[in-house]
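Self-study notes.
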Amino acid sequence: MATPAANVDVFPTEIQDRLSAFDDSLTHVEATLKPLLDTPLNEMHEKLTPLDKAKTDLIAAYAVNSLFWMYLNVQGENPKEHPVKQELDRIRSYMNKVKDIQDKEKAPKLDKSAAKRFMKSALWQAAHAQAQTQKTLEEASDEPIATTSKEPELKRQKIDTSTPKVKHKKKKGAKK
């Protein structure tokens, strides 16, 4: 019977390098998942928030399905035609939903009482400005109406000191 070291020499160096890299990656995955696998699921779920529970469950489901995808690849099957593809897509859609929920939590919140104060202040300022304008107009209407010596007595002008004076053109045919 041949020893495993003797079989290694049979494979080309390119395949040996890839197998070595694959073995290193699997060792790294094992080391990463060891704390997760050593803790009972019930104990771990007690310590997590509902959002973290969902994320943990989704990651575990995605990891298992990804490993099965790799297994199908190694077996020479096309995983794109296997139902595992739909399962991975379904898990990804749930991951996106969890991400949306997480983003909503980070979004700025509306302080309703502060918004009410801003609106009340803005409305008061607008009403106050409108009242001042109305008061100014009423005061202007109480001013005497002046006539100019160049115009007949019937045409009177209201003098408004807040706007620039407009020069009136003389009518054609008017005597000087």
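Second protein, same conventions, sequence then structure:
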Amino acid sequence: MGIQIYYTSVTASKETKQHQQEMLLILDSQKIPYELLDLAINENYKAEMREKTKNPTACPPQIFNGKDHCGDYAGFFEAVENKKLKEFLKLK
């Protein structure tokens, strides 16, 4: 199954858009494969994302490795800063 990212291609939030773009750039630069699940295209993804995070107000982007919730952008950014991205993504 690998890394899955719940995101949205349609957002009025510049911050959300920037966070999603930064996340994808970093994953691409590290050559870490991922699957994108766009909440704007499939309305079921939002409920699925919130159920999997066990958070009824979770917002994109949210990252999973299989069924394991890795975290959101804040956790991702912290892992990158601490050079622990693979641990965050549960790849190690």
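Instructor comment on the second fold: Residues 68 and 90 are 8 Å apart (CA to CA).
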